[in-house]
Amino acid sequence: MADLLTLPEEAKTLTPTVVARDGIALVVHPKNALAELSATQARSVFTGEINNWKDLGGADAPIRIISREEGSGTRRSFQELVLGDSKLSPNALFQNSNGTIREAVASNPDAIGYLSIGLVNDRVKSISYAGVVASNENVKNGTYPLARPIFLLTKGEQSPMVREFIDFVMADASQRVLEKEGLIPAK
Amino acid sequence: MDKLVSRLLLLAACSSAAILALIALFIFKEGVPIMARSGLGAFLLGRDWSPLQGQFGILPFIIGSLCITLGALLIGVPLGVACAVYLAEFSSPRWVNILKPAIELLAGIPSVVYGFLGVMWLAPLIRIRLGGPGLSILAASCVLAIMTLPTIVSISIDALQAVPKSYKQGSLALGATEWQTVWRVLFPAARAGILAGVILGMGRAIGETMAVIMISGNSTAIPHSALDSVRTLTANIAIEMGYATGEHRQALFATGVILFFFIMILNGAALRFARRKF
After folding, report:
1. Residue A16 phi, psi dihedral angles, 5° rounding
2. What is the pTM of this model?
């Protein structure tokens, strides 16, 4: 739960330190012609209201939603940012990691899923959301809305060693490493 | 001295039973309160699993587990028993020496490898040839059938070999063909052992987690055909445990309680059949 928009009740006693941010990209199969979804379209697709690619100008094929499992941080953030109060389609398939989501989408031309921007590679195609390309630059300049903070959580008084570790993670050199790995620096 | 050693051995024997008891106790302690709170009926027969909204219905997962296991048996049992009959009755010792270790080796392949093969090869094949999402009951059943083969084959071979040679000789001497001998004499005589093998295979299928997570698609909806995706009881626990807190976590333990009963019933049945002599 280190990557939620809002921390659950159980974590309220813990002290969060934002160490980075992470964008969420919508991804489809590389052969899919779709280039972007508006915020409303994205919500309709993931609630199951739009369930055929032809309604989005694509081929006549059912849309296969691939989602993270209930409880995952990416899932909760996606729920809050894209679905709001609406419910994910009951026909969605589930994978329990970013990597398996990517593989599931890469192996099915009718699939759509979502995963960390840093983990998008050429096996899947990232599509624009609300007219903005999913990229770390756009998260940084505030135009791409699908992003969540990544926390380090500490319990009670921070010991000197813990504080030293957090300082280490927040140092410029470490933040550059995080950026190289696909995350967005906290500063 | 003898007495001391026997005491120590008794202690060792009891410790494994105690571990089982502690595991059961822990699962029940964590899982039963949530079942009581939402009602056993609502928990077992509820169709909606949205743990963050407080909906804990595991009927889709019970159906999922049963469908995948049944499918695995439909494919695995004929294949496994036929294989056992051939190896026990018809093949030359040379072939037995090659085939039996090969089948037993199937049990040594990690389940994640089976799952990987299923995702990369079987699921796309099913999606392209038969339709649906590919990650489905059918895909999972096929893979689980292969995973249960070693259990079914090796226990069935033992059961068939335990049938006294005189039965077969008598049947053949009376003029029965080989097929009639197998079907009417050996099968009835080895029935209990073969059934025990099938039930143990079933236990393996119902308990398998990793491969099933990878190839069943893990949908929370009730399936309408063998091409639909399902989630099993084991998959539900394994997928969501990582991030679950509070009631959600308890509901996963409650899923474990149900699974516990499933396995107890299966093992009980297997023991009963295995004890019965032909």
Report:
1. -85, 140
2. 0.88
